[in-house]
Amino acid sequence: MGTGRMLCSRNLCARSFLRHLLQAATVALLLGTAAVADVKLPAVIGDNMVLQQGRPVTIWGTADAGEEVTVTLGAQKQTVTADAAGAWKVRLEPLKAGGPWDMTIAGKNTLTLHNVLAGEVWVCSGQSNMEMAVKNSKKAWGGVKNGDKEAAAGNFPMIHLFTVTRAVAGKPQTDLKGEWVVATPQTVGEFSAAGYFFGRDLHQAIKVPVGLIATSWGGTPAEAWMSDAALDADPDLKPLANSWRSKVTEYPETLGKYTQQLTEWEKSAEEAQAAGAVAPEAPAFPEDPRANPWRTAGLWNAMIAPLTPYAIAGAIWYQGEANADYAYQYRKTFSEMIQDWRHAWDQGDFPFFFVQLASYDQDYAPADSWAVVRESQAKTLALPKTGFAVAADIGEPHDIHPKNKQEVGRRLALAAEAIAYGRKVEYSGPVFQSLHAENGALRLRFSHLGGGLVMRGATPAGFQIAGENQKFVTAEAKIEGNEVVLSSPKVPKPVAARYAWADDPKCSLYNRAGLPAPPFRTDDWVVPTQGKAPTE
User: Which helix (H) or strand (E) segment is 3 a member of?
Assistant: First the structure.
């Protein structure tokens, strides 16, 4: 074939390819236009969803600008016009617990959502201990119960589950990935264990449908779950947020430098190989900060913000391990995060319950920093409608992911029953209230006696006292009525006491309701990480 014919053939092929490309683009454009015309819903509004009972419920989505959209649920029927950007929303009147129902959303197309319930909707968030699946759980008390058996028993038509797909974003998103499923033996095993056991126990106690939205990511700090506005309002956290923003802004330049270094390395490696020498070490590929789950506000933007229009009953939270390096600061950070979420949902002070860190013999942060995290978590009880589940007594010294999530869920559900739903149940172990010195001993008084104080184990454990020299020693402990009396021959004039104050503490104090005393200290002396602000 001659050169001219080859060129002609290539030109014909190029023109043919261009024509097909234009045709494909035209089809895609037409399909895209048709898609825009269709009424669309965010992922959290779909088949099997649970709507919050007792408060106005927002249903929202997109359509053509100016398109009329009608939402029908039972006797309620509301019509709204999409705005210039194609966004629309309606607010349904408060629903009573019940279902299942069908909901229709009609515009130029009609969507029918099936098996819709109304009940109590809870967001379940945090890091890996919230993320841990039911199939990986086991019950430590009363014999081992495999998570697979729990999943096999997980047949609850009135409990529906939604797991948010992991994602990071630089700006608040309007949608996320996930779908509602009914709690069955086929779906329960993969769901958050702490979340599921909480929801199961709550459902069995209050006898209404329960919807659980799991949105977690292992190993992540609280700052990733806060909004930029909240971070910027905190003078300690704003520098951390600015540092991440700088990393994101500078990444293209960083990547460019890496590309140049890689080119230079390849040349050096070839020269070394030719000379029979050892090649230099290759440059490390720079991690993309845009996709890093530690990015400040990154998980808020992608995994929380899209949920905030959805009415909820409250939230449960299991996190804190990733904040141990600045454990004392966490009391401020965590409190601000809770308030940030409440502001975003615009539902007032919705209930917020959390798991206090379990015992663990950690070695990645300053000694006793987990004890400080627990104290920081407890400080948030100053906020209204907060509560927590103690886990210091059910941890595993050499496993940061303790498997007994059944008890964690049970204790969270008890807090919800009492605080969120006003049921008369004991939801806490003995909580330290006051002390006074008497004849070389300290007498400690408690609330939440739950029928009386109890010491578990062969001997009381976990108690320490100190004198003015601030040196703590193991204390002898005994129960006298509703008090715990502490003493030690090594401390003739004790002034302060601590209980379960360690990363992996010994726990022995309970009430007759079977609930453990939260770790505590009576002093205000300087503790590890105090005065340390978060850094990258």
Answer: helix 3-37
Phi, psi of 180 (to 5 degrees): -80, 135
DSSP state of 458: S
d(CA 26, CA 36): 15
Q: How far apart are CA 149 and CA 389, in angstroms?
A: 24
Q: What is the pTM of this model?
A: 0.91
DSSP 195: H
Q: Are 197 and 145 in contact (CB under 8 A)?
A: no
* Per-residue three-class SS string for 4-67: HHHHHHHHHHHHHHHHHHHHHHHHHHHHHHHHHHCCECCCCCCCCCEEECCCCEEEEEECCCCC
The two three-digit tokens of residue 268, written as one number: 């050096």
**Contact status, residue 527 vs residue 368, Cβ threshold 8 Å:** yes
| Other residues' Cβ atoms within 10 Å of the Cβ of residue 107 | 23
Tokens of 420: 């969120």
Does residue 239 have a cis bond before it (omega within 30 degrees)? no
CA distance linking residue 148 with residue 142, whole number of Å: 17
Question: Which of 126, 532, 76 is CA-nearest to residue 304?
Answer: 126
Rounded Cα distance, 328 and 365, in Å? 12
With cut-offs at 50, 70 and 90, classify the pLDDT of residue 227.
very high
For residue 518, which of 362, 291, 298, 354 has the smallest C-alpha distance? 354
The string of pLDDT tens digits covering residues 176-194 is 999 999 999 999 999 999 9
Q: Distance between CA 353 and CA 211 in Å, rounded?
A: 16
Give me Rg for the CA atoms of the chain: 29
Closest to 509 measured CA to CA, from 488, 478, 473, 466: 478
DSSP-based three-state secondary structure for 450? coil
Contact 75, 114 (CB under 8 A): no
